[in-house]
Amino acid sequence: MDTMVADEHASFRRLTSKLYGIVSSAISWVERKPLAFMVLLAPACLFLVVFFVAPMLLLLRESFVVGGPGQRSFSVAQYAHFLGSLEYLAVLWNSIQLGLIVTVVCLLIGYPLAYGLARFGPRWQIAILVSVVSPLVVSVVVRVFAWQILLQSHGPINNALMALGVIDEPLRLLFAPAGVVIGLVHVYLPFMVLPLSAVIEKIDPRLEEASKTLGANAWQRFWTVVLPLSMPGIGAGAALVFTTSVSAYVTPALLGGERVLVMPTLVAQQILVLLNWSFGAAIATILTVVTLAVLMLYWGASARLSHPTGGRNA
To answer: Are 107 and 238 in contact (CB under 8 A)?
Structure first.
């Protein structure tokens, strides 16, 4: 019996060695060829084209189509209908405003966590990392249902605030913008903390020590040294949080209900309920374009803040 097991292990090792040799030889051959990086990038590019670019192009095409089967024609009527309605424009503004608020709140809460994750000792780093990453292993739906219980009029949060004498009557947190912001911050806070901590960790601590030697207090060290050097992390975290919160559907639907209408909810209503695919595609396209425009404005502003004298030095 032992001999059979040993023979199986030996044959498995020989097979693994052969496969490793073949793969290694193939990679070495590709590396020696011109434009080898294109061959290595081909599978990832193909995946993106098939599952991202192609669906986006189909969605864009559908947004310009009107009429039924056999009578479909090209038109911008869907976009004109959206842009000409104050109600739809209000939904768009609510979505952008919600994304900006969630981004700012995540930055205010996440920056101290990211700084501690980058600068504190191993014990604190492990504690912060676990507290930040552990919610990611729980489904978003489960977390949102938990927040529904916490944010009820007579839920734990309102009961605790009334017991402490902070409020006299329950706050409206569930099915309100405040509850949606709380839920989105909880869901997307790790997307702010992790890239920001990675950037802060690369900042040389001796720069802070040098500014302290020159007489700068803690606030001045943060404002003149740490914050400008951490702008790339702020930009990356803000981009992730803003894009995901603006396009979020589950959290606003479950915590906001019909009282908080955002663009993803509007898209779902048009496509799934009203079966108006063209108008739903137009709304999704408008949301994508506006989100990209806001990100470009933010990146331009953050670049100017990071290099305020770049133009004069040039």
So the answer is: yes
